[in-house]
Fold these 2 entries.
Entry 1:
Amino acid sequence: MDTPASTSLGLSLRRYGASRGSHSHDHFQVLIGIDGVLDLEVEGRGRRVGAGEGWVVTPGDRHDFESKDGSRCLILDTAQDLWARCAGRAPLAPQLLALARYLALCVSAPSTSASALHHAPALLLEAWGPIVPNGRRRAIDWQGLSDWARSRWHRPLGVADLAAVTCLSPSQFAQRCRDEQGVSAMHWLRAQRLLHARQLRDRGIGVAEAARRTGYRSPSALTAAMRRSGSAR
């Protein structure tokens, strides 16, 4: 991977080659293909990013990447939590390729494109588009929200945090959670934490390390939670 140009706003133009790379970040990484095809594997799931296509890698997700015939991508590294709602789905705007190519030119000459670069993160977020079922209200990307929470088990999370990510008030989010998931917001959050811990255990990770990664106060607390759910090992 080669990074010929970048800006202080987290935007860069990168070239990928046949040499395979692998890493993870503590922030969102937004990839938009400009030319060629980039092969991604994010937490074991494959994804190809061609020209005009995009993908969002969530914080903490290990991703492998290579491009056998070479490719270029516009990259945005950002801590903006609103990107959680874009995780797991492709961008909707058909003009994404034209936007990415224009911003790539701006990255190469940042001193003459300050205004465009300043607005670039918002324009790219807009390109992913809202999810609005039946034209009534924006859908909650529950998988994206789960991925967002997974990267933050190290600190206390509450309904207000989840609501902020989905651009809802705490009461609106709580009601949507009951309507769409059939449980309270905190029950859903606890279930996501336990699911992540169970997945780590299934991968052979010890109970102490699984508890540390998922924010349980002790290994015994995790064991007790798994026993209550009927998944103790």
Entry 2:
Amino acid sequence: MAAEQTPPPIPDEPKYGGFTRFEIELEFVQSLASPLYLNHLAALKYFENPAFVAYLAYLQYWTHPPYLKYLTYPGPTLKNLELLQQERFRRDIIDPDMMAMLMASGAKSAMEWPNSR
């Protein structure tokens, strides 16, 4: 995260392994942009854990300002975060075909983006 993007420090904010909660959650929510990572989480059965599903719902705050501006890849990050709110998607992402479809969709969007500007 660039220095100009770092939010102002909160006095006495606890650190976890040297990082703030904001930094840890930013890194995690951005990792959700990767279909491979989503498939990995599904294989480890994280999406079957009600506490983890509740955490995914909590992360919806990233869809609103002022947090939105900190996302490097807001399109796929927010799309996948939205999809993860659906039980069926959490169940289906274990399927390699679903993962491949998401990867192809992301690649297509990335290729079309410069022409859409």
